[in-house]
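Hey,
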Amino acid sequence: MKISELPLGIRMPVNVQAKILEVSEPREVMTRFGAARVATAVIDDESGRINLTLWNEQIDSVAVNDTIEVENGYVTEFRGAKQLNIGRRGTLKVIKK
């Protein structure tokens, strides 16, 4: 699926391949499961860009210019912008360093 085609608000699983353009500095947050690290990556394909939320070990597994594949992700809206989330059922794979 292309970034421009990602549906908002439907908890339907989406699969995306994209290139990482930037990764924010991780920040520490408290969740209902305890302390966690979270960062935001901007990813891009030929159709558009979207923010991708990265948690804990996902942050360290990717770098700028990597091509990644997200399987079984979902799209939400955060601060007025679409955001891709991996979630518990989703996976993140680096397919090209």
